[in-house]
């Protein structure tokens, strides 16, 4: 378009130029062009420019070497990749389809791992507190102070557990955002039907997704929280003579209460 402030909307198949609607009509009103019935298409349907080889002038990159993992032209194949036992040459469409399938499979595996991480952990904190209360009511006032101490310790563990869960949630949200970004990038490229573009970035995208999978492995799934009361084996008729040690042990990802 001559008016550089207006975004191009059309592509002329004959002129091989982009125009806004107004400029397209003005240019093709010229007698020399009007008779030729130039065809226009939406700008987003503009034919893709072929990728060219850096080593061989004006040679299109129409092939892919599976061994070298790179795009090659016909001259590359003849000069550097002719040994079929060392170089497996396939068309870009075939190679791009295979790479897209690998990347999509990796995305699905990561999503599946994320879904596993998001499963809520079982927390029986309240049930354990009720059990502690019931036991201490049965052995009277002498160990009421110990009861309160156990409840406090369990609450502290609950707070620590919540912090761990919150940290894990933040990490998972961040990983999900990265995965969505990479999946969108992959979908955008596959929707453009441009195999060369996908093959150029597949290595980087595969590396990014692999790193993402490793990050997921570092997100620990909380182990079920369990509390136990130990040291009460029997109750004598005279509670005043009981000398027992009551301990609450909470097993949760290395956090313990002594």
UniProtKB/TrEMBL annotation:
Domain B box-type: 1-43, 48-92
The keyword Zinc-finger is annotated on this UniProt entry: yes
Domain of life: Eukaryota
UniProt keyword Zinc, yes or no: yes
Keywords, in A-Z order: Metal-binding, Zinc, Zinc-finger
GO-annotated molecular function: zinc ion binding
SUPFAM superfamilies xrefs: B-box zinc-binding domain
InterPro entries: TRIM45/56/19-like, Znf_B-box
PANTHER family noted in UniProt: BONUS, ISOFORM C-RELATED, MEIOTIC P26, ISOFORM F
Protein name, UniProt field: B box-type domain-containing protein
């Amino acid at each position: 378009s001559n008016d550089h402030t207006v975004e191009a909307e059309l592509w002329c198949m004959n002129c091989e130029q982009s125009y806004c609607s107004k400029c397209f009509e003005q240019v093709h009103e010229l007698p020399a062009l009007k008779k030729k019935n130039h065809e226009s298409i939406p700008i987003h349907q503009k034919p893709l420019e072929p990728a060219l080889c850096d080593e061989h002038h004006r040679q299109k990159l129409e092939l892919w070497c599976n061994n070298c993992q790179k795009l090659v032209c016909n001259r590359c194949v003849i000069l550097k990749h002719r040994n079929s036992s060392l170089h497996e040459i396939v068309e870009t469409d075939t190679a791009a389809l295979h790479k897209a399938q690998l990347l999509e499979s990796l995305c699905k595996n990561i999503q599946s791992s994320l879904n596993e991480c998001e499963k809520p952990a079982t927390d029986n904190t309240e049930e354990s507190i009720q059990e502690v209360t019931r036991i201490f009511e049965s052995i009277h006032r002498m160990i009421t102070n110990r009861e309160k101490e156990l409840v406090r310790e369990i609450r502290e563990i609950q707070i620590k557990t919540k912090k761990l869960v919150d940290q894990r949630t933040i990490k998972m949200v961040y990983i999900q955002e990265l995965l969505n970004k990479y999946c969108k990038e992959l979908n955008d490229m596959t929707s453009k039907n441009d195999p060369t573009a996908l093959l150029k970035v597949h290595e980087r995208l595969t590396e990014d997704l692999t790193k993402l999978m490793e990050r997921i492995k570092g997100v620990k799934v909380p182990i079920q929280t369990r509390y136990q009361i130990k040291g009460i084996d029997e109750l004598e008729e005279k509670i005043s003579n009981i000398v027992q040690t009551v301990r609450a042990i909470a097993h949760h990802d290395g956090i313990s209460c002594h």
